[in-house]
Write a structure and sequence with these properties.
There is one protein chain. By secondary structure, the protein is mainly alpha-helical. Among the domains are: 43 residues; 153 residues, Up-down Bundle (Growth Hormone, Chain: A). It is built from 15 helices and no strands. Helix 5 packs antiparallel against helix 6 and helix 6 packs antiparallel against helix 7. It is globular. The two termini are 37 Å apart. Keywords: Membrane, Transmembrane, Transmembrane helix, Transport. Its main location: membrane. It is a multi-pass membrane protein. It comes from Thanatephorus cucumeris (strain AG1-IB / isolate 7/3/14) (Lettuce bottom rot fungus). InterPro entries: MFS_trans_sf (IPR036259).
């Protein structure tokens, strides 16, 4: 039995025991409180040991998939940007981005099943080593074809629960999974745009070259704190759906207002970009938390999240 299954079994058993103790009467209250304290310590241990390492892995994963947006504009004034060095057209650049997403979508679910065969410690380590090596090789690219090929491999190795066939069938036939997938797809519009085109968007606000790179930091810094705050609030109040929907609405309004303002309103448009980025990224944790809270079984949750991530990556 896997570690995640052990945890799930313990929490399920503690819930059953707690219900039985509640029927026993007021004398069992002390035992119930002790059991709840044990559960709390267990969850805190998981948060302290697993969440930081997973967050660091995700940071590395996010950097190498989105840094092509920085390379597009960096050193453009001296003629050494990615676009000018490889003589890329806008269409070729877009195809390069889409190639990554095609591989990411195609390999997402199979990669999750490889976790069951090889184990998380081996499989995730292999993926990290592979995408790191491929990212380094991007620096040696000398042609458009090589760039497309390496971006495809990067998408394949970045695709990342475990499930039995029975769980897989039940998950694939569950309509909430596909409803969440539609919501995830709508989030992908601003999420992917910000990830891949942030320097270009900032350049459109009047900033050039290095300034266009540096001014992509404030929107992400704001989004970092807003995302953590919204995730904590949604979990604390058990209002994940409302928080996700409200955050998406705010983000949509901010993007719309930014597009309607005059081109020379740089400061206001940049402020709205920070709001839009914060709201867009802030809706993701509550939405995925809402999904996992409505799917039964560790393997089924992993498969459902993989499906959502795959469909969301189609944009």
């Amino acid at each position: 039995m896997s570690f995640s299954q052990n945890i799930e079994t313990k929490l399920s058993n503690s819930h059953i025991e707690g219900n039985e103790l509640e029927k026993a009467g007021p004398a069992s209250n002390i035992v119930i409180l002790e059991q709840h304290e044990t559960d709390r310590r267990l969850l805190n241990k998981l948060d302290c040991r697993i969440v930081p390492s997973v967050a660091f892995v995700y940071l590395l994963c996010y950097l190498d998939r989105s840094n092509i947006g920085n390379a597009k504009l960096l050193n453009s004034e001296s003629g050494n940007s990615l676009m000018k060095s490889l003589s890329l057209t806008d269409l070729q650049y877009t195809i390069t981005l889409m190639t990554f997403l095609i591989a990411f979508v195609f390999f997402e679910v199979p990669s999750n099943y490889c976790l069951k065969r090889f184990g998380p410690s081996r499989w995730i380590a292999f993926l990290m080593f592979s995408w790191g090596a491929i990212t380094i090789s991007l620096g040696t690219v000398q042609s458009y074809g090589a760039l497309v090929g390496i971006r495809f491999l990067l998408g394949a190795f970045e695709a990342q629960s475990r499930a039995t066939w029975a769980e897989a069938k039940r998950t694939l036939l569950a309509w909430p999974v596909w409803a969440h997938a539609v919501a995830t797809f709508t989030i992908s519009v601003p999420f992917s745009s910000l990830s891949l085109f942030s320097p270009t968007i900032v350049a459109g606000l009047g900033y050039k070259d290095l300034d266009a790179q540096l001014f992509t930091v404030p929107p992400y810094a704001c989004a970092y704190f807003v995302t953590l705050s919204l995730a904590w609030f949604a979990d604390r109040r058990n209002q994940r759906s409302l928080v996700a929907a409200g955050s998406m609405l705010v983000g949509a309004c901010a993007f719309l207002a930014q597009g309607l303002l005059p081109e020379n309103a740089f400061k206001v448009r940049f402020g709205l970009l920070c709001v839009a980025a914060s709201a867009s990224f802030g809706s993701i944790p509550p939405l995925f938390g809402w999904l996992s809270a409505n799917i039964r079984g560790t393997g089924a949750v992993g498969l459902a999240i993989a499906i959502n991530t795959s469909l969301g990556g189609m944009y």
